[in-house]
Design goal:
This protein is α/β, with parallel strands linked by helices. It is built from eleven helices and 13 strands. Helix 3 crosses helix 4 and helix 8 runs parallel beside helix 9. It binds acetyl coenzyme *A (ACO). Acetyl coenzyme *A binds next to helix 2, helix 6 and helix 8.
């Protein structure tokens, strides 16, 4: 009996910190409003010459070190991001070249917004089980500061930059590692959170630039309601499918978008908040990077022990959503 385990994790956040107080100098907002509505105190912002791949590489190197392997051991690389270095080619190809993953590796990006890391994990899991790949590196990395409208106070206060990575390997041991995954999407709701221009439907032009349609547009209230509903559903399904109860889940790592969303989810599931890992106060919403960043911190902080069950649960633009159950 084989399983796919997380053999190493790593993360990285850019050096520059932008506090709520700093934001008050850019838009009409206050530390009190941002903290009370979202729980965010500060976020990391990449330098002008730092792209998503630069953040991804640092997180990847830390995950490789943690797994005690080198880039030469990787034959599958998946980068989950909605802020790629270029529209073409993939950020995975940039990372592959710069960290020395051999050319025979399969390298590609996936687009599932904030649920991207869970989608990447599910794809890598399936590919490793086929036996065609030996070792996968999955990365969630974002430079969201490059797609938010710094004049729009309803969005710019919520997001940050960062990256997280994990090394996945197949082992001959039953019942460990990735136990289950439940992913979904509801494309009917895509306009709740999207970038209207810059793609094939509405290519970039002076008009789209003028209208600011190349920035992230969000209907915050609707996203908020949907997020709680879908995360509760997939979290419950995952736990029930595996004949567990929430008492047996040592730690829930939710997508770090808004503290009030996490609070409502915890309350609806009847799980004490202290069993949810929360770091959004220091990073804001880093989309695909949010779960691996939190996972890396939680592990390094000793919040995850051998034998523990950890539940990852996310939602994002699409709207995509999902949950993944891991046993360490
Ligand atoms: N500072 C001060 N006031 C503000 C700000 C701000 N930064 N932003 C909005 N306001 C004002 C609004 O204009 C509004 O004023 P009005 O009542 O005079 O019209 C008032 O504050 C209330 O605004 P609401 O939108 O009702 O505030 P709400 O309590 O819904 O909180 C928030 C807004 C934080 C965006 C919330 O809806 C939310 O978190 N939604 C989910 C967003 C999310 O998670 N998105 C990402 C998911 S996917 C991904 O990660 C890519």
């Amino acid at each position: 009996m084989t399983s796919v385990i997380i053999a190493g994790v790593g993360s990285y956040a850019p050096q520059r910190i932008l506090t709520n107080e700093d934001l008050t100098k850019i838009v009409d907002t206050s530390d009190e409003w941002i903290r009370s509505r979202s729980g965010i105190r500060e976020r990391h912002i990449a330098a002008a010459d730092e792209a998503t791949s630069d953040l991804a590489i640092k997180a990847a190197q830390s995950a490789l070190l943690d797994a005690k392997i080198t880039a030469a051991d990787i034959d599958l690389l998946i980068v989950a991001t909605c802020t790629p270095d270029y529209p073409v080619p993939s950020t995975a190809c940039v990372v592959q070249h710069k960290i020395g993953i051999p050319p025979h590796a399969t390298c590609f990006d996936i687009s599932a917004a904030c649920t991207g890391f869970l989608y990447a994990m599910e794809i890598a899991y399936g590919q490793l089980l086929t036996g065609r790949y030996k070792c996968a590196l999955i990365i969630g990395a974002e430079k969201l500061s490059s797609i938010v409208d710094w004049k729009d106070r309803t969005t710019c206060v919520l997001f940050g930059d960062g990256a997280g990575a994990a090394v996945l390997k197949k082992v001959n041991q039953p019942g460990v590692g990735i136990i289950g995954s439940d992913l979904g999407a509801d494309g009917e709701l895509l306009e709740l959170l999207y970038i209207p221009a810059g793609g094939s439907r509405c290519p970039a032009s002076p008009l789209t630039l003028e209208a600011g349609s190349h920035f992230l547009h969000m209907k915050g209230k609707e996203v908020f309601k949907n997020a709680i509903k879908v995360m509760e559903t997939v979290a419950r399904e995952m736990v029930e499918q595996h004949h567990l109860t929430f008492d047996q889940i040592s730690l829930v790592i939710p997508h770090q978008a808004n503290y009030r969303i996490i609070e409502a989810l915890a309350s609806n599931l009847g799980v004490p908040l202290d069993r949810f890992y929360v770091n959004l106060d220091r990073y804001g919403n880093t989309s695909a990077a949010s779960i691996p960043l939190a996972l890396d911190e939680a592990r390094r902080a000793g919040r995850i022990k051998p034998g523990d069950y950890t539940l990852l649960v996310a939602f994002g633009a699409g709207l995509t959503y999902g949950s993944t159950l891991i046993r360490w």
